[in-house]
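Structure tokens please, single chain.
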Amino acid sequence: MPHFKYKATERSGKVSTGVIEAASQTAVVQKLKDQMLIPISIETTHTKKIGVSKEMDFRKYFARVKLRDVMDFTAKLSTLMDAGVPLDRSLAISSELTENPKMQSIVRDVRRKVQGGASFGDALSQHPKVFSRLYINMVRSGEAGGVLETILQRLTGFLEESETLRQEIVSQSIYPVLLITVSSIVVVMMVTFVLPKFTVIFESMGADIPLPTKILVNITNFFKDSWYFIVGALIIAIAMFRKYIDSKEGRVKWDSIKLKLPMIGGLLLKIEVARFARTLGTLVRSGVPILQALSIVKETVGNRVISDSLLSVYAKLKEGGGLSNPLKETGCFPPLAVHMIAVGEETGSFESMLIKVADTYENDVRVTIKRVMSAVEPVMIVLMGGIVGFIVFAMLLAVFNVADMPI
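Here you go.
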């Protein structure tokens, strides 16, 4: 009968290990349950799970941790702690339930640090690329106030709202991207493989090539003969542009231009206002002081123009007074958002009003995206159809010209 090495947790959260003789892993699980133990891992002692064992899983070095992974981890941890399971044991169970090997490794590391005496917030802060300042500070405020379960629930809701909005933006962009991709492939195939064969036939027959066809052939030859110059120029231009926007002055200028773009600028502003309001509202509601919360929010705002405007808001808020007037003076925030925040300050429902501002602008973002796509899609269809139509027209015109030649 084989022997199995196991790792399990007791009801108190203490981890125990040992070896059990049993017919199968199922039998081991049953024996552990009979001993009031919760199994974490089981493996045979005479074989090593090479490439499968979680300690030897090299996938964790290549996997990326996405927002979805953090959201799933937070939701599971919140459910376990709300059910009365201690933090240490909740982390152990969450690590086993996490599918992403990289995230699993991080959760285990966080658990080890918590077992070593570190606070949960300090343990999370060792992984700043996975857990944002918002996340860490909310956890710390929950630990300080003894309401970690509630904070985790709010974090779950915050992450779900952020992920839902992101997914909706991505889903609305799929059709235009697909349309451009397919149309580009069709154009490249026709110009690269079909047109040259027609050109050879016309030249061998000594036929005059019509003007539209000549234009098309010349454009094709130009790209075919000079593609490396074009690609090189594009690479240099992109590199120079990226270097420019990486500088502080360049980033501010580019972000300012984006906010002034027709249709797109208004949409970007609404996204930033929604993110600002939801992040600030969630932090303040969770017990984070307003000045500290504003400092964190400044880092979550993606547009540098809006982010820099929060510096003056922070300075004026530090001197005393409300938030609405400094926001209004920046000129970056829409009047509706400013008035709603002012009403929240006057009625004592500041945190709730910030969440309502976020809900309002997120809904507005969804509607605006649909409107923008409704306007962009016909333009793209006409543009790509015009390009394909011109190519077909130029080729058919040449064919008709050959057909009219005397035999």
